[in-house]
Sequence to fold (116 residues):
Amino acid sequence: MSGIEGLGSRASLYRVGPYNDIGSAVPGLDPHHVGQKAPLGDMIPGYDPLTALSILIPKAGHTTHGPSGIISRRVFGLTTPRQVAARDIVELRRVDPDIPNARFQALINMNKTHYP
Fold:
């Protein structure tokens, strides 16, 4: 895994699930809401960012600039939760190409279940 050696636990890296379950105390890693919590909070009645779908990713690229930049927070033109999640997945792929495709599939399936 390029660019992430020494960051957090390898078992935790790219873990997906509810925000409050994936862990925020892993050194060098940040939980990232998929899709972005601000627009989803406006689009989904009862949206709870603490239980929202997330993935644990390296801090570089999430809250600090990494080699491929930072995940875009631009929401102009996004009008549905699915569009927000799709944009997030594209951004995650751009910023961290090491994320396994199986993690994206898990997020997509969870998203369909949580936000039909």
